[in-house]
Amino acid sequence: MNSRAGIADELKLSAPDLGDAERAAVDAVLRRDQLTLGPELPAFEDELARWVGARHAVAVSSGTAALVLALQACDIGAGDEVIVPSFTFPATINAVALVGAQPVIVDVDAASWNLDVAAAAAALTPRTRALLPVDVLGLPAPRAALRALARRSDPPLAVIEDAACALGATCDGLRCGSDSQLACLSFHPRKIITTGEGGAVLTRDAALAARCVGCATTVATTRGPSSTSAATHGSRSWRPRSAGRSSLVSTRCSSAASRWRRAIASGSGRAAGAQNCAGWRQGPTTRPLRFACARRSRAGQ
User: Fold this and answer.
1) Residue 119 has what pLDDT?
2) What is the predicted pLDDT for the residue at 72?
3) Which of 191, 261, 270, 295 is catalytic?
4) What number does CATH give the domain 35-300?
5) What is the block-wise mean pLDDT of the chain (301 residues), using blocks of 10 residues?
């Protein structure tokens, strides 16, 4: 065996923590004749919103789709600029390009690896329409400072939070996404909880939630048991293809994952996933641990 391949086989970043309950939930969906936009989808959206503390949740097909929808909901497109951090997964920048806008890449804070507020302020131009901070590896970005910067702009900027790795993380006593204009989650298998593939947009704004739903689904008028049901089709489909995918996700799993994250974080003295991140910029310079998808790994069980 190639030594490099052997090391890769031994060092697993994460493994989805799925059991008999999840398999049974998927099997229940497969036994019905409705495999898309079924009752599990709104049930999951409601449970997710309640658990996070957000007013609205819109489930979609991926974290990238969530970012695209959030940008579209804010009417961001050609000719607009969006501030993004230099340290992030490519999807953050790709989503901006997908809607035709220009990503403006700015530096990150050396201690947290999150978007640097001063660098973001220096990068603003008359074409800037939004800030897109990332909760790097689950460590919340400086939301209060970034939102204040957005409010000071004329006109005010949208703040779209890439919280793909931050489900369950808290800042100032609030879970990421609970009070956001728009926040985007990912349910990829290496995230906190998984739907196989999937994502969600969280928002406190009912109008933005409605716009996300309108952009997200090709089936705009009918949720029926058959794929041949009469429907009005839109131009894009970002909704989950399978209603059963939402059955895989449990906020109880997210609670357990959060406990694991806090246990790991406590050894480093950092605030990733901790109860309050106030003053984290003044903390010691310690690299965030790579546990954005910390769960019980198969190797550790």
Assistant:
1) 96
2) 92
3) 191
4) 3.40.640.10
5) 58 74 85 80 91 92 92 94 94 94 95 94 96 92 93 94 90 87 89 84 92 70 38 43 42 48 48 31 26 29 31
**Which residues are bridge partners to 106 per DSSP?**
85
Burial of 92 (0-12, 13-18, 19+ CB in 10 A): buried
Which residues are 59's β-sheet partners?
200
Residues contacting residue 156 through CB under 8 Å, at least 6 positions apart:
150
- Residue 278's identity, in one-letter code, is A
Please give the Cα distance from 164 to 162 (Å, whole number): 6
Q: Tokens 């490519």 sit at which residue?
A: 90
Decide: helix, strand or coil at residue 134.
Answer: strand
Cα–Cα distance measured from residue 10 to residue 267, given in angstroms and rounded to the nearest whole number: 24
**Active site annotation includes 12:** no
Residues 80, 186: Cα–Cα separation, whole Å: 25
Q: What's the pLDDT score for residue 93?
A: 94
Question: How far is it, in rounded angstroms, from Cα 278 to Cα 232?
Answer: 48
Please, is 232 exposed, middle or buried when counting C-beta atoms within 10 Å of its C-beta (0-12, 13-18, 19+)?
exposed
With a CB cutoff of 8 Å and minimum separation 6, the contacts of 255 are: 168
Query: Residue 197 region, left (φ>0) first, then alpha (ψ -120 to 50), else beta?
Result: beta
pTM above 0.85, yes or no: no
pLDDT of residue 4: 60
Q: Annotate 66-84 with DSSP letters as a single string.
A: HHHHHHHHTT--TT-EEEE
Q: What is the pLDDT of residue 221?
A: 39
Handedness of CA 240, 246, 252, 257 (dihedral sign): negative
Domain boundaries, the chain: 35-300
